[in-house]
Amino acid sequence: MKIYKIFAISCFVSLLFFSNAKAQQTVENTQTTIKYLSGTGKDDMVLWDFYCSDGMQSGKWAKIGVPSCWELQGFGGYNYGHDKRDTDLKIHDEFGLYKHQFLVPKEWKNKELKIVFEGVMTDAEVKINGKLAGEIHQGAFYEFKYSITNLVKYGAENVLEVKVNKVSANKSINAAERDADFWIFGGIFRPVSLEVLPKDHIERVAIDAKATGEIKTALVISSKKAEKVSVVLADITGKKLQDLTITDFKKEDDNWTFSTKAVNIKSWNPEKPTMYQLQMSLLDKNGASLHTKIEKIGFRTIEVRESDGIYVNGKQIKFKGVNRHSFYPTSGRTTSKELSIEHVKMMKDMNMNAVRMSHYPPDKHFLEVCDSLGLFVIDEMCTWHTPYLDTKVGQKIIKEMIVRDVNHPSIVLWANGNETGWNTALDNDFAKWDIQKREVIHPWNIFRKTNTMHYPDYHIFAYDGPAKDKIYFPTEFMHGLYDGGHGAGLDDYWKQMWNMPLAAGGFLWDFADEGVIRTDKNNEIDFDGNHAPDGIVGPYGEKEGSYFTIKEVWSPIAIADRFIRDDFSGIFQVENRYHFTNLNECVMTAKWVQFNGPNEKTEFKVLSQSNVKLPNLEPNEKGTFSVEKPQNWKSADALYLKATDPHGKELFTWSYPVKTPEKLNSERSIADAKGTVSSEIKNEQILVTANNKHFKFSKTTGLLQEVIANGKLIPLNEGPIILGHKGKIDTIFVKQTDTKTEVIALFKTNKKYYKWDENTETTQDFIKWTIHQNGLVDLKVEMRSQKKVTGYMGISFSFPEQEVNGMKWLGDGPYRVWRNRMKGTKFNVWENDYNNTVTGESGFVYPEFKGFFSSLYWMKLKGNNNNGFTVYCKSDATFLRMLTPQQPVDPQKGATVKDFPVGDISFVKNIPAIGTKFQEAERTGPQGNPENIFGNDDEPIIIDLTFEF
Fold it and tell me: Could you tell me the fold of the domain covering 302-553?
């Protein structure tokens, strides 16, 4: 006898699809029993017999785990999709044969028995004991079932056989599912179960539960005895709350409809996703229960108001959404409830409130998690660029999708395919099966009430003339290829989306890099070039920098930018960007901290901590809050404000430096009077020795050529190269005193020569090295520039990458930044080990080590085979450039930054923006503008550093 997963469903117990129970439970007349013939997900498979016709491990019977995609189990062959366009590639068209034995107990003889397939790729022919269970099912992502009551043997073993063709016999199915921009797999990839029902039973139910408590219900029944129905509202645990009175009861053969109303209910929304059970019992003429069906519901009302917006429970919604594939690297389209929970929690952590199913209905457990944890959902029929020309098969698929998903409160819209994949003859079919009559959209199209444009340029989005009366609602934007898009540019777009009355938000593309493990290529991970590395997180959920940018930009507590100076009032401006939550339901704490130095183990010490009273602000209201200033607040280095929502989830932690870099570093004891210093000029070099440290400078350029500290070479050299400055060296001279040596290089000016002023050092651009007797080295560079600059402004040094082991720094981190992705960091002491991650392509170790880091105060470089060095920055608004990131193979239009400063380590005053797969950075908003505004002759750019070797 086989071991199966079995569940009994009573009128007081929710249907639990993912229990670990293996033993059969007692079946009562009014219960539904679910017995799994397969496992329930990627981490819980049951072995079946399997034969693959072609490719890996083909031509022989073997064992395969079910559910699974057979490629990931080492069978058949891989292909990404785009079948019609990539004609030079092999289109894998193997089929698979499955066999499995299962026992049907004698007690089920008087029951109705159905076999349920939650998802099979792609065409499925099902036989029970050698006989067809029904017509061949076509379409991969849709649940289907057959009645097998008359096909099974009771009290005996039965044989299940399934033939699965990876390529469908239906051209429309292939156009929809195989010519798509995602991985194509084969197999029984979602669970298979037996559904055991009383002979008299409820086949299915559709529910419309409004925020008012009003409920409309449609039942399809199979019964000759049933006369009426009773309805109980229970909480999500099954505890009875109230008996509901039925009104408007109508029977049309096996189709029953009725209305009722619940009282004292809490509505459902993503911020407070209150769920209930609706327990419906089919009764005979004597009032005896024939069958009880339980549905989880949430009370909420959806309206799409023309030329206005999308409203839920009377509140206009800004969708902060992301597109999400059902996918995992080691299992393909086979997922698990645990993975659904993990993904939804990450979306909620990024302060998202919505997710679009791309481009097919997900596992039903994903929708259950969206219901329970709170996310709006767009559920989508699977097409990609090519519509279902076969209207009949399209009608069947729409029915299967909506019949399964209709009762989820999280679903607010249906999508009729993707990017011209719309058969408009099917638009009205959604309402045939959806009692809630939710609106249908055409993603990437102006259709009915919405304009769901994809990847709009910032300026087009703002001034899209032909559709000014439509609800702006891009179902894909900020394409996140590699490190481009997502957070980069989002701040600009969101300012528009939030403030435009007709903008309803949008959906980022997409959630996770869709890299698959290639069992035919030594288990390497494959993204099919640049087709699939589009995620905010890596294939296993590794968080990229944009993750935290999104978290800040989409925080429902929006704090206006603020700087702390000596006259700081303690007052912050704030806006409540929740839809259903008062700001005073959240908690905020303020923490004043003082940072430790580069050689200390701990990051900081807390000087003071207090609670912040958030104001009584309803959604969309603005106001202020005050932070308590302790007596010693000016001795702090930074202020942290941490906000948590009513459920205890961190919304974001904002950080505000209190001291300038000059003030913080000048207060540290980084210099003393010990040691001696000497200098000489030899062979066109300036040689300086101080405290067992030896320095070589060029006599003609003033550049540092060599550092030897305590007998070890520290390979920082060939700097400072001046970036964004065209002047030439005019004079170099050395000043020697008992306590220091100064090496000064003066630049020519375009106007006239100025006399060097030792007191002000402001009349001429210069490089000034000061080597103190204790071996500390100051570097001060002063330069003037044009007001508008498109290149870098700053200085750069060489330091061989192979000699870098890691760095510790005080500044914004731990992730690198781009000009249009500055948010999401925190001012703190950070430490990153060296890595060579190419975002979304290789490595997947985050944060990336290489790139630009903002608000530098100090940095300690850890060297390989050298002692490294520490540099203290005393200049405001200075970026550290650490090495040069490796370029991804094919970033297309803008998903990388190619031009970095010369050298390896730089200190710059401006950094570039990054674009997306389809857009150069300047097309994503003002922060993508390549021009920088600097000073003039009266406002020189100053970089002031101290090196400790």
Answer: TIM Barrel (3.20.20)
Ranges of the chain with pLDDT below 50: 1-28, 86-87, 752-755
The DSSP code sequence of 480-498 is: -STTSSTTTTHHHHHHHHH
Identity of the residue numbered 89: L
- The model's pLDDT over 427-484, given as tens digits with 9 standing for 90+, comes to 999 999 999 999 999 999 999 999 999 999 998 876 666 778 999 999 999 999 999 9
**CA 214 – CA 436 distance, rounded (Å):** 12
Give CA torsion, residues 137, 139, 145, 146, to 10 deg.
-10
**Strands 376-380, 411-415: pairing kind:** parallel
Contacts of 657 (CB under 8 A, 6+ apart): 564, 637, 638, 827, 855
Give the Å distances, CA to CA, from 87 to 84, 90, 179, 792.
6, 7, 11, 45
Domain 201-297 CATH superfamily:
Immunoglobulins (2.60.40.10)
What does the pLDDT read at residue 7? 40
- Please answer whether residues 720 and 781 qualify as being in contact, where contact means their C-beta atoms are separated by less than 8 angstroms: yes
* Nearest CA-CA partner of 44 in 17, 14, 71, 62: 17
Separation between Cα atoms, residue 164 and residue 185, nearest integer Å: 11
Q: How many CB atoms lie within 10 A of CB 289?
A: 18
The full DSSP string for 213-246 is SEEEEEEEEE-SS--EEEEEEEETTS-EEEEE--
What pLDDT score was predicted for residue 675?
Answer: 87
Query: What would the two tokens of residue 362 be?
Result: 């997900």
Q: How far apart are CA 652 and CA 374, in angstroms?
A: 19
Please report, for the chain, the start and end positions of each structural domain, with discontinuous segments joined by +.
5-198, 201-297, 302-553, 557-657, 677-783, 795-948
**How does DSSP classify residue 425?**
G
Closest CA to 122 of 90, 55, 167, 68: 167
Q: Is 431 helix (H, G, I), strand (E, B) or coil?
A: helix
Contact 203, 136 (CB under 8 A): no
Burial of 61 from C-beta contacts in 10 A (0-12 / 13-18 / 19+): exposed
Closest residue by Cα to residue 289 from 225, 203, 217, 243: 225
CATH annotation of 5-198: 2.60.120.260
How far apart are the C-alpha atoms of 261 and 233, rounded to whole Å?
10
Taken as a whole, the chain contains a residue count of 949
What's the pLDDT at 15? 33
Predicted confidence at residue 820, as pLDDT, reads 98
Going by C-alpha positions, the residue among 2, 392, 407 that lies closest to residue 192 is 2
pLDDT at 227: 95
394 sits in the region (left: phi over 0; alpha: psi -120 to 50; else beta) called alpha
Domain at 557-657: CATH architecture: Sandwich (2.60)
d(CA 829, CA 817): 16
Quick one: which H or E segment has residue 163?
Answer: strand 156-165
**For 104-108, which contacts have Cβ atoms below 8 Å and span 24 or more sequence positions?**
104/152, 104/153, 104/154, 104/155, 104/156, 104/158, 105/24, 105/154, 105/155, 106/154, 106/155, 107/27, 108/27, 108/154, 108/196
Q: Are 891 and 488 in contact (CB under 8 A)?
A: no
How high is the pLDDT of residue 934?
Answer: 72
Q: Cβ neighbours of residue 268 under 8 Å, at least 6 residues apart?
A: 211, 274, 275, 298, 299, 300, 371, 409
pLDDT score for 758: 60
Q: What pLDDT does residue 597 have?
A: 92
Rounded distance between C-alpha atoms, residue 262 and residue 274, angstroms? 14
Q: Distance between CA atoms of 325 and 344, rounded to whole angstroms?
A: 12
Note the pTM of the prediction, 2 decimals.
Answer: 0.94
pLDDT of 538 reads 97
